[in-house]
Amino acid sequence: MSGAHAHALHFHGHSPVHRMAAHVKIAALFGFVAAVVVTPTQAIWAFGLHAAVLYVAVGMARLPAGFFFRRLSIEIPFVIFALAMPFVATGPRIEVGPWALSIAGLWGAWNVVAKATLCVGASVVLSATTEIPDILAGFDRLRAPRLLTAIAGFMVRYVEVVVGEVSRVRTAIAARLGDRRRLGEAASLATVSGTMFVRSYERGERIHQAMLARGYDGTMPVISTTPVPARWPPVAIWLAAAWMVTAVAVVVT
Predict the structure, then answer these.
(1) Is 138 strand, coil or helix?
(2) 159 FRET partner, CA 20 to 30 A, in 1, 21, 133, 242?
């Protein structure tokens, strides 16, 4: 835990958004997400303006479209859930081809897709322009509970260890059982998932004992890849404030 390392969501760059303070970006993200969440479902024009604000942020961060949309695919489960809502919701229905879709379900699907896309997109901008240590340091500067930031730091660090363990198990299964279909591979992985859970738990115990032996007192040192200047340029504060104020103004309007 002593060193910083890049994570899969980060996009190396030198844009104004990359150079902005992590705690300023976090505050802007929470303000934007709060504004999107409270936006009335039927105010389609408001979602359009929110999307324009997000588009400006992506452009200022100089994120490639392919990179952004690949990271945005994490919301696919929400989209699948939303697509089912017009078929299962109750209330008045409207005929769309051979289907009778619930009007309330259609609005609900729109609400889920629009808000999830905007919120996940804003989160992608934060994660793509800020290293994990800087995000954790930003939460510390915002006076977030140190226990939560410590848990988040461990999760980010050791999720890669667990993913590596799964990769080694898949390689061992392929070496012993040959090429198998996805369903057969999933069944094999399910049989060893309990063993992997126990091994992960035991690894966590060993790491905790090693930390105690090195003087761990319940708080993690703040590690940041970006030096914190005495005073951030006013343009960074104004950019983040403009992002939040625009989103809030849209909601109020």
Answers:
(1) helix
(2) 21
Give the separation between CA 166 and CA 99, rounded to whole angstroms: 42
Q: How many CB atoms lie within 10 A of CB 39?
A: 21
Q: What is the CB neighbour count within 10 angstroms for residue 179? A: 7
Residue predicted with more confidence, 132 or 116? 116
Q: For 167-221, how does the pLDDT look when each residue is reduced to its tens digit (9 = 90+)?
A: 787 777 777 766 666 666 666 667 777 777 787 788 878 888 888 888 877 666 6
Calculate the CA 39 to chain-centre distance: 21
| Rounded Cα–Cα distance for residues 86 and 235 (Å) | 45
In degrees, to the nearest 5, what angle opens at C-alpha 34 toward C-alphas 13 and 19?
20
Encoded tokens for 86: 């017009």
Here the tokens at position 67 are 């990179």
Residues comprising the chain, all counted: 253
Q: Any residues with CB less than 8 A from the CB of 118 and at least 6 apart, and which?
A: 32, 36, 47, 50, 51, 54
Give the orientation angle of helix 65-72 with respect to helix 103-129, to 10 degrees: 120
* Element spanning 79, H or E: helix 76-88
What value does the mean pLDDT take over residues 128-154?
Answer: 83
- Cβ neighbours for 9, distance < 8 A, ≥ 6 positions apart: 71, 124, 127, 128
Query: Full-prediction pTM beyond 0.85?
Result: no
Burial class of 249 by CB neighbour count within 10 A (0 to 12, 13 to 18, 19+) = exposed
Among 147-151, 152-156, 194-198, 218-222, the range scoring the smallest mean pLDDT is: 218-222
